[in-house]
Design a protein that fits this description.
Elements: E1 10-15, E2 24-30, E3 33-39, H1 52-55, E4 71-73, E5 79-81, H2 84-102, E6 107-111, H3 117-130, E7 135-138, H4 145-155, H5 165-169, E8 172-176, H6 180-183, H7 185-192, E9 199-203, H8 209-212, E10 216-218, H9 225-238, H10 244-250, E11 251-252, H11 254-261, H12 266-273, H13 277-289, E12 293-297, H14 299-302, H15 307-320, E13 330-333, H16 340-346, H17 361-371, H18 386-394, E14 400-404, H19 408-411, H20 415-424, E15 427-432, E16 445-448, E17 454-460, E18 465-471, H21 482-493, H22 505-516, H23 529-535, E19 538-539, E20 575-576, E21 595-600, H24 617-621, E22 628-631, H25 633-639, E23 646-650, E24 655-662, E25 670-674, H26 678-683, E26 700-710
The structure holds iron/sulfur cluster.
Length: about 700
């Protein structure tokens, strides 16, 4: 078959709107509209590569169920189109009515890591300062809250230290709870470009695609990672395989940590993790002898009941061995959503804009001055986290909810509880591309949003690179950019004259620059969107004094890592060892529920709740079309299960059906289900890490009911 040819009249480059890798995509334009996408060959992130989602990014925009007008649900449950002015008036009057009856704290907002940074910041200001809403969180709580808190406590600021070339410069790469092959396929390609024949070590209960391609796989028992990492620290100390000079000059809390780690003996590690002694020793040898060791983690760490301390145990190893601030090193959290990093700094949810503290009066004054607000308009306390908002709806303290670009009815842990909560609301507003999401089914008012590629703004990727999103398509009907919707709501609410400073995404970008000034994330040196475009994105920090006065077009180096001067962001300039005793998971297997259910990404063609990727014929062809469960051959044999049979799974919360996939990629006593199907979160249990309040999606007890096994 001949390749299809496209007649185009121009091209332009923008960053992808799915994952945090932040690849550059070239849009091929005809008559002002993109008709095709290809990976941008010169973009410094992806170097001419893209995963299937990137290639297919236009398909979700062309879906037949795009919402093209605001919709109001009537008493019979029917959705009726209304004008934007009526929708905005209803939004303001109903939410204000709820606040008048139940108090200002009776409304909440749940947003996303998928909008531009300008949109996130405007929403955060609108909801918290304009609408006086206290409880505002986003779905980044589900993926990156742990890394945010871990870095803040350890380094003094939420600062992932790496750049992507570190994948190519390591001698030893340690991936913990990270199936980077599937979750971040372009970053895996960067690993494959490493010419040092590196040791690639994967720590994961499953033999994931990444583990299959690794030099070494440590198949630890689920949630034994914290014991493993503390035991690793002890073993490195025992061998004197630590960087004493770095520890002395640049860290705090070492003596306490070294004493604490002594109780994590090799016997204890082997007992808790189920590892062979030789494998554990080989792991220690690899770290001890590596010249450039990098530690990487993703959701297998972040989504646990003690996730913050686990992430910090990895940071501790990097500090202990001096593997930070140098090429090929680092304690590196790979982010999830395309703008989770923007959300972490500028959502104005649990941190005040720029990563500041709501409780700090000087911080509030600073932000108020930049935004033209009275300082009193900025609350002194942060509001509820996501789980507390769900609980608040249940206990009746929250009556109204605004959901922006997320699908809580599918993605929230212990799904039945989320569904019951949504049903209890007096008023639910859903702002999305589609009226057909599981969450939209409960909405009283639906606001049609433009998607990625139908608006402009910036995203921040995993390596702290600000990249540009451009408008390459027109949104359908009356759908508007989230930014424009927030402007309309701000006007209908009459929030005050400060809203005029947010006159456009680029005006908002100027505010964000000022909000970043003198913080570790300072990017005041980025002069314009054009500069971002010309540079292929720019990593923070890039303060204006960093720009060379000798040139009229100052450009930063393409890739820069943090802490090359070993100065951390705590007041004393030192990184902190942070640690705690491990605790058992709140729900463990029992005779009735003998299996541990693991969850995670299924394929690189699927994104989260499939809201967008299911719109692409190509992506659907590249992934399973219904839920499946991976089961070990020995367990399957004992239960009389073969691949392709429908099995019944039950947890203490729900019972679901799934197709069995018999595979030795899961260990005995463990099962794996992809997160993309509704059934998975019907089984999970709402447990959160106490520091980050990130849910523990990776561990709950289930049974496979033999009596209910039947042919698919
Ligand atoms: S790896 Fe991520 S950023 Fe790159 S094309 Fe795929 S989804 Fe987009």
């Amino acid at each position: 078959m001949m390749p299809q040819r496209f007649e185009t009249d121009s091209t332009t480059t923008l960053v992808c709107g799915f994952c945090s890798t932040g690849c550059g995509l070239t849009a091929h334009m005809r008559d002002g509209e993109a008709i095709h996408l290809t990976p941008a060959a010169q973009y410094p992130v992806n170097l001419g590569m893209a995963c299937p989602k990137g290639w297919e990014s236009l398909a979700p925009l062309a879906a037949s169920d795009r919402m093209s007008t605001p919709l109001v649900r009537d008493r019979s449950g029917q959705l009726t189109p209304v004008s934007w002015s009526k929708a905005a008036a209803q939004f303001a009057s109903v939410f204000k009515g709820i606040q008048a009856r139940w108090g200002t704290e009776s409304i909440a907002c749940l947003s996303t890591g998928q909008m531009t940074t300008e949109e996130m910041a405007l929403l955060g200001c609108l909801f918290r300062f304009g609408m006086r809403g206290t409880h505002y969180d986003s779905n980044t709580r589900q993926c990156m809250a742990t890394s945010h808190v871990a870095y803040k406590q350890s380094f003094g600021f939420d600062a992932p230290p790496f750049c992507y070339s570190d994948f190519e410069q390591s001698d030893v790469l340690v991936f913990v709870g990270s199936n980077v092959c599937v979750a971040h396929p372009i970053l895996w390609q960067r690993v494959l470009r490493n010419e040092k024949a590196p040791l690639i070590i994967v720590v994961d209960p499953r033999k994931t695609e990444t583990a299959m391609n690794a030099t070494m796989h440590l198949p630890i028992l689920p949630k034994s990672d914290l014991v493993l990492l503390y035991g690793t620290a002890r073993a490195l100390l025992a061998r004197d395989a630590v960087d004493s000079g770095f520890i002395r000059d640049h860290t705090a809390g070492f003596d306490q940590f070294a004493a604490f780690a002594q109780s994590f003996t090799e016997e204890m590690v082997l007992k808790h993790t189920g590892l062979e002694r030789a494998d554990f020793e080989q792991f220690i040898n690899a770290i001890a002898s590596g010249k450039r060791v990098s530690f990487w983690w993703t959701m297998g760490v972040n989504q646990g009941h003690e996730s913050t301390r686990t992430a910090q145990a990895l940071i501790n190893l990097a500090l202990l061995t001096g593997n930070i601030g140098k090429p090929g090193t680092g304690a590196n959290s790979i982010t999830g959503q395309c703008n989770a990093m923007g959300s972490r700094l500028f959502a104005n949810a649990t941190s005040l804009l720029g990563g500041r503290d709501f409780a700090d009066a000087a911080h509030r004054d600073k932000v108020a001055g930049i935004l033209g607000l009275p300082a009193a308009a900025i609350p002194e306390k942060k509001g509820f986290a996501y789980d507390q908002i769900i609980d608040g709806i249940h206990d009746g303290s929250i009556k109204g909810l605004w959901v922006v670009a997320t699908n809580s009815a599918h993605s929230w842990i212990q799904q039945e509880s989320a569904l019951e909560a949504l049903k209890k609301l007096e008023f639910l507003v859903v702002q999305d591309l589609y009226s057909t999401t599981e969450t939209a089914a409960f909405a009283h008012l639906l606001l049609p949003a433009a998607g990625w590629g139908e608006k402009e703004g910036t995203l921040i990727n995993s390596e702290r690179r600000l990249g540009l999103v451009k408008q390459i398509r027109r949104a359908p009907g009356q759908a508007l950019s989230d930014f424009r919707i927030f402007q309309i709501i701000a006007e209908a609410w009459n929030v005050g004259p400060w809203r005029h400073r947010w006159s456009s995404p680029e005006a908002a970008f100027e505010l964000l620059k000022e909000l970043s000034r003198d913080l570790p994330c300072d990017f005041t040196g980025i002069q314009s969107y054009e500069m971002l475009d010309a540079c292929g994105g720019i990593q923070w920090p890039w303060p204006d004094h960093a720009a060379s006065p000798d040139t009229s077009s100052p450009r930063p180096a393409v890739e820069r890592r943090l802490f090359e001067d070993f100065n951390f962001y705590h007041d004393d300039g030192r990184a902190q060892f942070v640690f705690d005793n491990p605790t058992p998971p709140p729900e463990t297997p029992s005779p009735e529920f003998p299996f541990i259910l693991l969850t995670g990404r299924g394929t690189s063609a699927q994104w989260h709740t499939l809201t967008r990727t299911s719109k692409s014929d190509m992506l659907r062809r590249l992934s399973p079309d219904s839920v499946y469960v991976e089961i070990n051959p020995l367990d399957a044999s004992a239960l009389g299960i073969q691949s392709g049979l429908k099995v019944q799974l039950a947890s203490r919360r729900a019972t679901v059906f799934a197709t069995a996939l018999v595979t030795s990629s899961v260990q005995r006593g463990q099962l794996f289900m992809p997160m993309h199907f509704r059934e998975t979160n019907q089984l999970t249990l709402q447990v959160v890490d106490p520091h980050s309040r990130q849910p523990s999606y990776k561990y709950c007890a289930v049974q496979v009911l033999r009596s209910a096994i039947r042919e698919a």
